Batch of 2 targets.
Target 1
Amino acid sequence: MKIYTLILATFITVPLMGQFKINQSSGKISFYEVNAVSFEGHSGSEILISPEDDDFEKPERAEGLKLISPAGIVDNSGIGLSVVTEGSETAVHQISSRSDTRYTVKVPAGVSIYYECTTHAGRTVMVQDLASELEISANFNSVELERVSGPLAISTVHGSIEADFTEISQDNSISLHSVHNHVDVSVPSDAKASFRLNTSWGEMFTDLDLDYGQRDDLRQISSKKIAGKFNGGGVDFSLTSTHDDIYLRKK
Amino acid sequence: MIFHSPQRTMIFISAKNNLMKTTIYAMIALLLPLLLSAQRDIATSQSSAGIKMLSVNSTWTNIKIVNWAGNEVKVEGQVSINNGLNDDAYEYTLEKRGDVLLFESEIPDLDDLPRFVTYEQDGQKIQRLVDKDQGWSSNDLWRENGIAQISIGPIIEVELTFYIPQDLSLQVHQVHGDVQMDNVLNEMDINTKHGHVEAIFSNDIPEHCKISSTHNFVDVSVSNKEKLDLILRTNHGDIYSDLNLNYNRARCSDEMYNSKIVASVNQGGGAELALTSTHGNIYLRGK
């Protein structure tokens, strides 16, 4: 069955002059150890992957050969990536772990995204105009999100997270966690969310009028954990920076 | 002064303050057209009787290796240093040490040789003799002419072909210079520091074959029918192939700066082929 699916995948994936198309408008696409990626939402029914500024250059000497890796994966896309689709799920691996090629990935709204990068070659993940669900698990990448709505689950050890929300989706929770760098978030002034802010060694700054609720017992004012509702509350929205500051702004 | 060589090369001689130096440089310049086509022929040989290994330890030499049916190792080629000005600066020996035949080459007075800067401008290759006492640097040329890519140093062109019997094992250690092998069937251990290695094994391949370059690429072609056990390794480069590899995953390594592929081709059990390029790419082709 898997063989048939893979054969099918070869028919629905088309390399086109530096751009790779996947006929997929639902399900999930996962990126593993692809060092530099920019995700963009789009209204089409295909996933489009292209090296930014055509900066994926195969050496002339490699004409007729394929880039291969110790993991046994090969460049079947012609742009330095292994792309394998099984059913409604696509897995993308970068062949060369040291490559600095940045890939722009345009994703239909119905496709959720998973991104994982563990090495220090990981560069800032750029996200724009995305309506899809996005999960990022990174060690070194920073994450910059522009005009997003969620749901989001972003976790990075060494990178920062900066996010500009056009609205806050009430479909599922949002979490933005960095261990060693700052988290900076802007939300619309009329958005609804139940915020939880948490830092151990940093500070928290906000201009939002958060409702901390009525409590009968004493509030631990030295705590660096805050839970507050904004505009009456809404989806769970967690911001954590263990060693750095948290900034929560309204637009 | 400017001279045009048949290769559309322009040679400039720097005339600075010192009159004597200027005179010497001018005389050299006057002789350059005569010397431009000059090169020194190399031809030497040694019997391979009683020899088990040929060891080549050389620098500033592009080496081509071929098998032949003769019962001696023969080395032929040409040397051109500074367009014929300093051909005698290249020294070499081919001598027996026990059961090893050792070829060694060097340019012992390299630092004392005249230096040229070489660059391209307006489609022309320009070679400019410089007075190193003037403290000339690439920045001067960049500032004067907007040239960014130049090379500085003696112009060294040494091309040698080694004709070797098949029954010797072969060991090559090169510093500067490329290695090319056409259907060489000797057991081999080839290493270059700065040069690349190109090897073609059209029909057969030696049982043990180890080829590496530190800073340049390794390009090997083998027969598609060959049974191979492969180890392909690079730290900073990429690996390309069109062979159908059967990976030994347990022995492969996919770390950030350590890519090692252990695999077999055509079920393996044949020749052991180890290719390494620390900073360059590896190309393994099936023919």
Target 2
Amino acid sequence: MRGSSFKVLIWQLAVLLVAVGVWELVVALGYLNPFWASSPSFIAAALIDIVREPLFVKHVVTTLSELVAGFAIGAVLGIAIGFVLAEWSMAERVLAPYLAALNSLPRVALAPLFILWLGIGLWSKIVMAATLVVFIVISNTLAAARSVDSDMITVARLLGARRGQLFVKVVLPASAPVVFAGLRLGVIYAMLGTVVGEMIAANSGLGYMLSFYAGSFQVSHLMATLVILIALSTALSGATSWLERRLLARARRPTPSRADVAPRLQTPAIE
Amino acid sequence: MPATAAPSSPHRATSTAPAMIAALGVGHDYVAEGLAPTPALTDTDLRVREGEFLAMVGPSGCGKTTLLNAFAGLVVPTRGRVTIGGEPVAGIRSDVGYMFARDGLMPWRTALDNVAFGLELRGVPAPERHERARTYLALVGLEGFAEHRRAELSQGMRQRVALARTLATEPAVILMDEPFAALDAQTKVIVQDEFLKIWERSRRTVVFVTHDIVEAVTLADRVVVFSERPGRIIGEFPIGIPRPRSASGSHDAAFERLRTEIWACLRRGMSGSAR
């Protein structure tokens, strides 16, 4: 098992090296114009250049804070609305067509409107990101709450669970894994909303950098910025997965009274 | 329900004892939108004495589960009255336990916390409810599996955890809907034996739905037979086999005779192709 995953890693590195090598070679041999295609070594140089730039940290902080705020607002609203709709089926039936219509609207098209309303600062991007996140989280939360095993609900009701208890002790923990899957998608959508918002109108942020470099024909710098964006969203996805594992592990921890240090009599399994 | 005299029962019941569970003229129709109502159960009268173990057998769809669910407060019957402890059933009651073929265990909880769940819902403090849950886990032979989660338990163990969960709230009445039907033949006998032992010690009132005649005769004090849909009671068989009983022992002539009689009654209640 270990050996095979090590083998996979080696091959993954090999694929990267071959791709980078071919790119470099094709540019070096003159088959591609580096002005348009750049090359791995030009991108590396541009990356160093960008990172050394005094304003670089400010750009990253701008994008990150818009992204995190937009994600947080969208996630909280999405989870809350999702569970309310799941519990209150009348509201869900009334609102379903409107939600579907809003969800089918390419929300990026709203960016100019948000910029008109909220200016070119942080808030237009935060709202942009949040509108993208909220729908994906609503639909995941709704699906999660609906797919809770009905036997568990029946058992809880028969044992006397009231509605609130049913929600807190059964529906919430049972839906957590699917809700988290929605949040992982939400991070990607938040990134999308933030960067698109910055590209349309901003004076700071990685999306602003992208459109600046594109406008001034600095392809290597543009691609270096893309590398930074990939690194950032990979890190954020990793952070979400880590948080998920932490939270779910906590819910799965043995009961506090477990210790009791009672000798564990091993009854032989009967099957 | 006022203490109307129970019909003279073949057992020790005094005729003045009120029924622990009673159904009076109960009938139920299932209504689906745009379709004529389907009658599932008609004209059913049934009394269960306190401490009696009653089994209900019948072909599938005969309404025996519907009647059980009416006792549980899960179904409001279309016609007739259902009482527990003399009071009309109006919703789920805390002194009634219920168990069905699927375990419904919560996979994120340990076996112990699944057993303690009913007590947790009732606000019993953690140390006490864990103590009690431990007792009931031990009773079903799972004291070594308190910290195991559903995924780490075999089918038979899961059903025993579900049994412990049902017993842990110490209900006066236990309603069981084919609780051992999902178990393989050997496991089933072992769990039946365990349940018999537990029941014979506590003698709670039990209503047990099953399609397995051997199981009904092995466990119950009395077996009632339902006809096919719309179900009604077409036969009643007191089971005089002395206790303590065992599910794993061999069946004597009396057992075989009861089994054959119940089977014959069941067949009479079925028409057409099923016959």
